Amino acid sequence: MPSVAEEDRRQLYRELLTTKRDRTRVIKRIKGLLAGGGMRLELHGDVGTQLEEVHQWDGTPLPAALRARLKREWQKVQPLTEQIGSPEAERHVALRTSAERVLEQVRQ
Hints:
By secondary structure, this protein is mainly α. The protein has one domain. Helices cover 75% and strands 0% of the residues. The protein has helices at 4-36, 47-53, 64-97, 101-107. The longest helix is centred in the last third of the chain and has 34 residues, at 64-97. The chain is elongated, with a radius of gyration of 20 Å.
């Protein structure tokens, strides 16, 4: 059974893993919604503008409700991406600077 300190040390990694999984779920949902209309879209940069310009497989514009839903879904991705940055930076600092034996093994 892990000690309280060991369990506490794992929280940062668990948070990072959960947040990455949440972001992946949202991105896959967006890609699935697009694929349902025969569309593909690179999800980077100004996705809101890209959604205004994307057309369905037959050349018709995206239906308004679908476009609105896709924009709302993309708005969920942005804070998750930002949220990933802080624990990753904290984890890298801990890996570089900690004198704990376990983290020494990880560095090797």
